[in-house]
Write a structure and sequence with these properties.
5 helices
Length: 103
């Protein structure tokens, strides 16, 4: 992952946020792969995660933290949906097309 930039306090907070979100995305990818009709979605999230790893601005992570509940790491549909929605919103902000990456 790219090193974060910002103040020392921002970097510390953003590092924790990024770690939680990354863990949530990893779990969602695994969950999607386990559902035959949803496996294509995992492909898009894998590609998006690679793009997300290049975000170095600590303030971006802090400003976008509320879009997903990283504490929801269980495989429930609600948590999976929350993570997928966050990924789509974040991708749009970064100019990344998750649906195109699914193909």
């Amino acid at each position: 992952m790219t090193n974060l930039t910002g103040t020392e306090k921002q970097i510390a907070w953003a590092t924790e946020i990024r770690s939680d979100i990354t863990r949530s995305i990893h779990q969602t990818i695994a969950d999607l792969k386990a559902i035959p009709k949803q496996a294509y979605g995992a492909k898009g999230l894998v590609a998006f995660q690679a793009a997300l790893e290049s975000v170095s601005d600590a303030s971006w992570w802090i400003e976008n933290r509320e879009q997903v509940d990283p504490r929801g790491r269980s495989a429930s549909p609600r948590n999976m949906k929350s993570t997928v929605v966050w990924c789509h919103l974040a991708a749009a902000k970064l100019g990344f097309d998750i649906m195109a990456a699914c193909k």
